[in-house]
Amino acid sequence: MLTAVREQLGQALFRRVAGPDGPATRARIHHTPGPRWFGPDRPIRTVHGDASMFIGGLSALLLQSLHPLAMAAVAGHSGYRGDPWGRLQRTSTFLAVTTYGTAADAQRAVDHVRGIHERIRGTTAEGVPYHAADPHLLGWVHAAETDSFLRAHERYGARPLDAAGYDAYVADTARVAEALGVSDPPRDRRELSERLAAYRPDLRATPEARAAARFLLFQPPLPLAARPFYGGLAVSAVALLPPWARGMLWLPRVPVVEDLAVRPAGHALTRTIRWAMAPHRQRPPG
């Protein structure tokens, strides 16, 4: 009975994250021979392969929304409301291909995304023009994502890295960022912190950002039975945000509740995800 529950939960999670073509895509990524951008010992493989990514990814979306130009591009072109799971599946596939796939596959994925970015242009509600291929805008998206994944792994990862390991993780992500068009991405944690601080004057919570936060946190397109599980991920993602970001999004911190309830819940949820999605080895008869 427990094995059946584990398999059903694992399959449901995988379908949500990887989509209907997930099994074929996974086989292509991991079993196609050829050189990779990152060897098996690289920190990016450790971080991106951990269940903490569920929390880090949601936290990254909230943080990224605070750049008005990035949020305008997402609101106008990504279809995150109409097809949120499709967007998640495309993002997770890109991360998997660039982290674990062959170098040729990774380059094709990057070229595809760069082509999409090149076509995304528009203006904000205030009339400010934006272009998704702008290196400065790409730099914000990259820095916010990298910091969120790192924070989530540091707090909820099965095997947290040491300081040198997280510096190496930032350096690994810079390889992908440069391929996407980011100019001089940060290569260690100190540079990442400095880069995030440099973007602070550009950031504010627009009505679109707060609407996105409400959608992500309170209106997920999920059946009622799954919402308590998602709610645990959501509060854990909010707790990861820097205090200034939470203030902008009107998401106050409650220290005692977070220390006594939110963090333990995040650990319990990530352990459950690992248990459900770990490869199942069938026992031999007898």
Automatic annotation (TrEMBL):
<feature type="domain" description="ER-bound oxygenase mpaB/mpaB'/Rubber oxygenase catalytic">
    <location>
        <begin position="46"/>
        <end position="275"/>
    </location>
</feature>
<dbReference type="InterPro" id="IPR018713">
    <property type="entry name" value="MPAB/Lcp_cat_dom"/>
</dbReference>
<dbReference type="GO" id="GO:0016491">
    <property type="term" value="F:oxidoreductase activity"/>
</dbReference>
<keyword id="KW-0560">Oxidoreductase</keyword>
<dbReference type="Pfam" id="PF09995">
    <property type="entry name" value="MPAB_Lcp_cat"/>
</dbReference>
<protein>
    <submittedName>
        <fullName>Oxygenase MpaB family protein</fullName>
        <ecNumber>1.-.-.-</ecNumber>
    </submittedName>
</protein>
